[in-house]
Design a protein that fits this description.
It contains 15 helices and 20 strands. The strands form four sheets. A five-stranded antiparallel β-sheet has the order 2-1-5-4-3. It has a five-stranded antiparallel β-sheet with strand order 7-6-10-9-8, sandwiched between helices. Helix content is 47%, strand content 23%. The relative contact order is 0.07. The chain is of the alpha+beta class. Among the domains are: 69-175, Beta-Lactamase; 379-612, Phosphatase 2c, domain 1 (4-Layer Sandwich). The longest helix has 66 residues, at 3-68. Helix 8 crosses helix 9, helix 10 (426-443) packs across helix 12 and helix 14 runs antiparallel to helix 15. The two termini are 92 Å apart. Strand 8 (232-236) and strand 9 (239-246) form a beta hairpin. The chain is elongated and about 145 Å long.
Amino acid sequence: MRLAVKLALAMTALVAAVVVTAIWSIGVYLRRDVERQLAAQIEESSKELQRAQRDNLRLLVALNRGYADEPRTKAVINSSEVDDRTVADVARDIRETAGFDLMIIASPGGAVRANVTALGKPVLVPPGLIQPADAPGMRREFMASWPLENEVYLIAGNAVTLADRTAGIILAGWVFGNERAEEIRARTKTEVVLLTSERITAAAIDSHLESHRVELSTAIHDAAERSRSQAILLTIAGQRYMMRTAPVEGLQEPRDMRPGQTYFVLLRSLDEALRSYYQLRGFLFKLGFFAIAVAILAALVLANTLSRRVARLASATALVAGGDLDTNVPVGGRDEIGALGRAFNDMIARLRISREELRSKERLERELEIATVIQTLLLPAQPALDGFDVAARMVPAEEVGGDFYDLHSASAGHWIAIGDVSGHGVTPGLIMMMVQSMLSAIARQSPEIGQGYSPREVLRVINAALHDNLRTRMHDDNYMTMVLLKHDGNGKFRYAGAHESILVYRRATHQVETMPTDGTWLGLQDDIGPFVEEHEFELRPGDALVLYTDGVTEAKNPQNVQYNLDRLRDMLLRQGNASMPSAQKIRDGIIDDVMAWSRTRQDDVTVMVLRRLDS
């Protein structure tokens, strides 16, 4: 298959995938957004339903209060000579005048004396719904909702009082029927259904739900069993609705009725809410088909152009592979293929100078080898000091390291030094050689001159020369940490400088002493005299002095945990407790332990050990 055809198919497939994914993503987002909005709307409708119920009950209570306070009502209820028929006539007059659906007049003890309804026959009131006026917690005025004979009545109760005595109870009620459901529907803009004992007792619903009442009742009951007071989806005869149950305000169910059998259901059509989404989806599909058709045409034209330019690049590549480095590819454009052509031409140009770069690299490697040899030769291979067993070793991180140690035993004094130049490579190695040369020259002064030098004064001289070389001549920002010790005889040492702490193993106590070093780094400023102090200590027979660089304590294991000073102290303690350990054994034990701890060397590792002999 030709490249042009492959590119055209790939671009068409890509555009089609993008279009389909975009339509699907927009559709999912819009649908979920509509469902969230619908759920929020039906939740607000539930709150509005509760407010509407309370408004109806308050109105009913206010109307009933007026009739309870009428003198005629009080006279009829209070007189023991008035029979129940007369009481019923008064109740019927009140019901017809006020437009109540139910009027009940009861004695203070709760016994019904009159029970009249709009249907012309009394409604059965289960025992316990009408509480005696003197019952605990009984109020002079109350409102409730009663499910009676498959209807829900809004009830207002008022006590009829004479002086401080309750003469009776007058109860007025409205049936919550379709008319009141329509009022709620208009107020909440939501379909409303009232269920009592799995039967629809009042409804204000659209024509689709009205024509499928039986299926609606069954579906509502099943859904209500799964979820209460939470919006869920309901499918009625192929149409989807968002449904939420809501409680009946002030509901008082008879004792023989199972709880939870009377409740409102609010419904909103999801399909109606999604109508705009369906219209938008249809438009997006048409737009997508048009985009795919345009993409196919554009892909064919573009693929043809690209394939020709790629063919030219392929021909040039074959020439280069044959050894023709004078080949150039026509760039022809500023797009990716043009950039590829320019990169191809740059690659050929780089190939032309690759031999020179290889030669330069070989020369650099030879220079590093020479620097390594010089550094190795300058470090004392077997340092020695009368009365001491001495061992030292440096393991560089690169070909030329920045660590430094030295020992000079001359008539002008015995000098021991250890230090670390910042960084690695050739430049730190050169700095280390400068310091070694200056220290060697000072140590070899005549006894008359050399005996007067102290570690502090030698460090001042070395720092001044090093600062001039680094900052003035080399324009380099490296520096060096260093501690310099002078042995005055009989195991007595003086030292100065800023470097790692000095460790001393005491054979008499089998303890390790840590002596900190202070001062400042070399090479940062021209005079460090004010910042350098000298300290003294003594090594007794059998004691061991350990000097080291930060490559020991800062070595990290695979878990990135440092070796640290405490592990070094513990290692020295184990080595010192062995029977008469040599300086070499202590040195090798420390280095081997550090190497086992850290599999890779991030820094030079240097250890120098001086153990005072017994005689």
